[in-house]
Amino acid sequence: MRFAIIPGDGIGKEVTAEAVGVLTAVGERFGRTFELEQLPWSADYFLQSGVTIPPNGYDLLREFDAIFIGALGDPRVPDNRHARDILLGTRFELDLFANYRPVKLLDERLCPLKGRTPADVNFAVFRENTEGLYVSVGGRFKAGTEDEIAIQEEVNTFKGVHRIVRYAFEFARTRNLTKVCMADKSNAMTHGHALWQRVFKEVAALYPGIQATHYYIDALAMYMVLDPGQFEVIVTNNLFGDIITDLGATFQGGLGMAASGNIHPGRTSMFEPVHGSAPKFAGRNIANPIGAISSAALMLETLGLGREAAAIDAAVLKAVRENQGTQDIGGRLGTRESGAYIVEQIKGDKEQDR
Length: 354
Ligand SMILES: NC(=O)c1ccc[n+]([C@@H]2O[C@H](COP(=O)([O-])OP(=O)(O)OC[C@H]3O[C@@H](n4cnc5c(N)ncnc54)[C@H](O)[C@@H]3O)[C@@H](O)[C@H]2O)c1
Description:
By secondary structure, the protein is of the alpha/beta class. Helices cover about 40% and strands about 20% of the residues. The protein has helices spanning about 10-30, 45-50, 55-60, 80-95, 160-175, 190-205, 215-225, 240-250, 290-300, 305-320, 335-354, and strands spanning about 1-10, 35-40, 65-70, 100-105, 120-130, 140, 150, 180-185, 210-215, 235, 260-265, 270-275. The chain has a ten-stranded mixed β-sheet, with helices on both faces. Strands 6-7 form a two-stranded antiparallel sheet. Helix 9 (about 290-300) packs antiparallel against helix 10. It starts with a strand and ends with a helix. The mean pLDDT is about 95. The structure holds nicotinamide-adenine-dinucleotide. Nicotinamide-adenine-dinucleotide (NAD) binds near residues 255, 275, 277 and 287.
């Protein structure tokens, strides 16, 4: 299998190096050849060449089985133009409409919610990834004056809402889950989110075995904190999904722990940790690589390599349970040492296989 690897900026480069080490180790363990082709697209590349992504960049990406991205964002590019083209551009151009973000607590000690255990925090969020408020429709008038008007439009299409809601129900059905919750703000956003209401009801009717519930997004945020155990699958729009998955990441032990996939079934999809480039942490060997490593596992699972993904997940779980991690999760290891520990577990399990 061929993977495009875009380490990106800041800690993105450091955590990607560890994810690559893990992919190589799991490939060796299961006798698979993973071709990992590094692409240099980043703030450095942009500042040197003036190019964010080459003209044939998206076509190039389509030729891979999947794409792995570290993180993008650099204070030297204040408008984040390169990140927009590389990250958002790939999501839009490759039509990666399903942003899959599992919220899974690995160890009780990491959860800031009092008394919550891994049994209480285990759900999937599906965020619509190609529409909503992120389509950059709008404009500024009289910018910089006291009369400035700024308009940012939210785009919701029947097709866009339908396919993400359907994807969430299909995810539940194929995993024998019984609950899907949709979150919107249809009480205040009476046009766009009325469409979400209509589509959710229509799709839910096709899945009589699955309990379909609804919360307004503000209530959902509250219930995520008060009673996360009630959720199995959450589906929501681009902005709300972005926000609630950072909240979800804190349940798992912080942004450094959270993984994600940007998926279009049957097409080249893209996997990345939820966190950004954390410039403050860059170059210090302190970033937690687990979000990136778990994203690599998600990538393999999505491509049908379930055993390989499970081997990575088991190694991560062991590292977390043994407190062999970075300082953000209470450990003493650096980024490289944390990645190396997980690689050792994967290799060690191979010894046991023999
Ligand atoms: N997908 C992406 O590439 C992505 C996502 C979010 C932000 N960004 C960009 O990243 C830059 C920094 O943004 P930010 O500071 O708001 O968000 P961030 O996720 O980079 O960092 C926020 C804080 O979360 C913690 N954190 C994040 N990743 C961690 C890790 N692996 N290990 C330990 N702690 C970690 C740190 O305390 C950090 O200061 C900006 O340019 C932003 O646009 C990119």
